[in-house]
Design a protein that fits this description.
This protein is an alpha/beta fold. Helices cover 39% and strands 21% of the residues. 35% of the residues are buried.
């Protein structure tokens, strides 16, 4: 699936929320392969400000940057560590950073990594964001989440996507 970068926005920021899941890692790989000329913003949302949650976030963000640079040497990657509700923070950061695209995992760390279904959280969040969203399954397959291809998303939710 190819994405057109809007004219005049060649340095588009692509937001990639990460959580340590296989699906999240595939979202990072997908974003790097599809948007190497723009900036990637890796976001980790810690559930609390406890030291362990923050350290996990820092570790995952650093690992994410290393992974991006192992795939594309000169890629522009920034990171952000937030605390709070994941859905709210993803929406807020996407708006604040004026991201042109959100590439996110179709389901998180608690879901089964071998199942190509979209979690309810990812489906809800993809409809709430006011920008294009690409959901990435653990297999690395991307499913566009915008209204134009809502049928593809519905098929994925029903488990009938090819």
């Amino acid at each position: 699936m190819e994405w057109e970068v809007p004219e005049g926005n060649r340095e588009m920021i692509t937001l990639v929320p990460i959580d340590g899941s296989q699906s999240s890692e595939e979202a990072v790989k997908f974003a790097v392969r599809r948007q190497p000329q723009g900036e990637l913003l890796l976001l980790y949302v810690a559930p609390s400000a406890r030291q362990g949650d923050l350290e996990r976030g820092r570790f995952l963000l650093e690992a994410g940057v290393r992974h991006c640079r192992s795939l594309v040497d000169d890629i522009a990657v920034t990171t952000r560590l937030e605390v709070g509700d994941r859905r709210t923070k993803v929406r807020d950061v996407a708006a604040e950073a004026n991201c042109g695209l959100v590439v996110m995992s179709a389901h998180g760390e608690a879901d089964l990594p071998h199942v190509d279904r979209v979690s309810s959280e990812a489906a809800i969040l993809s409809t709430q964001l006011q920008r294009p969203v690409l959901l990435v399954l653990p297999t690395g397959k991307g499913i566009r989440g915008d209204e134009e291809l809502a049928e593809d998303l519905e098929e994925a939710l029903m488990g009938t996507a090819a």
